Amino acid sequence: xxxxxxxxxxxxxxxxxxxxxxxxxxxxxxxxxxxxxxxxxxxxxxxxxxxxxxxxxxxxxxxxxxxxxxxxxxxxxxxxxxxxxxxxxxxxxxxxxxxxxxxxxxxxxxxxxxxxxxxxxxxxxxxxxxxxxxxxxxxxxxxxxxxxxxxxxxxxxxxxxxxxxxxxxxxxxxxxxxxxxxxxxxxxxxxxxxxxxxxxxxxxxxxxxxxxxxxxxxxxxxxxxxxxxxxxxxxxxxxxxxxxxxxxxxxxxxxxxxxxxxxxxx
Length: 266
Known about the structure:
Blueprint: E1 8-10, E2 21-24, E3 29-32, H1 35-46, E4 57-59, H2 73-76, H3 85-101, E5 105-111, H4 133-138, H5 141-148, E6 154-157, H6 174-184, E7 191-193, H7 196-203, H8 207-216, H9 228-244, H10 249-263
Parallel strand pairs: 1-4, 4-5, 5-6, 6-7
Antiparallel strand pairs: 2-3
Helix pairs in contact: 3-5, 7-8, 8-9
């Protein structure tokens, strides 16, 4: 797959295969994915009628969260592997290893964890994780095991708030997206936000506002679902802030390099 080809994101968390946007403000690289076209492409790859080199498959999985109570929405929806961090670490690594071998890109989510959330998901309302730093760190074992096993997942950042680290949601928190993930855990790969569309809706703010916030803290890929007009507006906002210097050029260049490296695997 050439470096110029964009990445198609396969998402199943909001409304089946959602229209998804992956864009970077450095040079206007962006992609709109029509759900029907994406499904058709995936089916043609599966049937052998289209080489995988023509589609960078990006799976919105595995769920690396460790539910702490039966009331947790992930546990209630049976989306989590286990309530044991050791089992989750082992199973997510096996999942990622298997799909990477099939030239499909996994995305570990939802960093730094939604296991301590209640019955409400981040798509439905504002979620605050009232856990200590020590408790949050214990739940990061799946990410640590992935690194030890030389796996190459993208990491999806949660839109929940973790007051022990920051008053901002993880997807636009420097303390989490930068210090915790990149410095403390040593993660070198690309990052992606969870849906900024639903995050904006529950906060009654604009998608463009959150897109700029996430780009400012160095998140590489911004996930936006819904009308094309929403993605275009967000793209324009990111590009405008990049040109003004509000989003640092060095940060954009680092993101661009990580995305090109990701694409080179296909």
